[in-house]
Write a structure and sequence with these properties.
- The chain is of the alpha+beta class.
- It folds into 2 domains: 1-64; 70-179, Immunoglobulin-like, CATH 2.60.40.
- It has 2 helices and 8 strands; from the N terminus they run αβββαβββββ.
- It has helices at residues 2-64, 104-111, and strands at 70-77, 83-92, 95-101, 116-122, 126-138, 143-154, 159-165, 175-179.
- Strands 4-1-7-8 form a 4-stranded mixed β-sheet, with no helix packed on it.
- The longest helix is centred in the N-terminal third of the chain and has 63 residues, at 2-64.
- It is elongated.
């Protein structure tokens, strides 16, 4: 009887030693599949959150800047390297709209053909004056500051203006204005 007990215990022990690794392997496989499914669900949730954020941003822009009063001003510079732009100040109807001091990276992006949205805001319909002051240095290390003025009419539709900085002393004080 005693020998039979040990034989049963030994066979259970051997069976356990054989089955345990197989069971853990199966559990590991299940957990990997679960992790893959969970990862896919997380990716779907991230995508949904990004879509909601984009929709929210669009809604926010529409609420903050209704199309009937919206004015957007974009700035670019001529690719010539006869001057270094340090700062730009934009006034609308004599009031400061925006001021920007450029970092080396921002300036490099503009010199490579980049366009910067320097201002988005609300204005009433009718005639307005845009004043742009550019400040910087010439190749000779001489500092400069030039201002250009532009009169434009704002209708009930969104208005977009483009400013191209060509450098001091060039066409219209080196500041060109475009209605986009």
């Amino acid at each position: 009887m005693q020998g039979e007990k040990w034989r049963v215990i030994r066979s259970l022990l051997v069976t356990t030693l054989i089955i345990a690794p197989l069971a853990s392997l199966q559990a590991e496989e299940l957990s990997r599949d679960d992790i893959r499914n969970l990862d896919l669900q997380v990716q779907e949730i991230k995508s949904d959150v990004l879509d909601i954020a984009a929709d929210f941003n669009t809604l926010e822009q529409r609420l903050l800047f209704p199309s009937g009063t919206r004015l957007s001003v974009f700035l670019s510079i001529v690719a010539q390297k006869n001057f270094r732009l340090d700062a730009v100040k934009i006034e609308i109807d004599g009031e400061l709209a925006t001021h920007n001091i450029y970092s080396a990276k921002e300036l490099e992006a503009l010199q490579k053909g980049g366009v910067q949205n320097v201002y988005t805001g609300n204005i009433t319909t009718g005639k307005h004056e845009l004043s742009v002051t550019m400040m910087g240095k010439l190749k000779t290390d001489e500092e400069f500051e030039e201002t250009g003025n532009f009169v434009f009419a704002k209708g009930v539709e969104p208005k977009t203006l483009g400013i191209t900085l060509a450098g001091p002393g060039l066409s219209r004080n080196g500041i060109q204005f475009d209605n986009w």
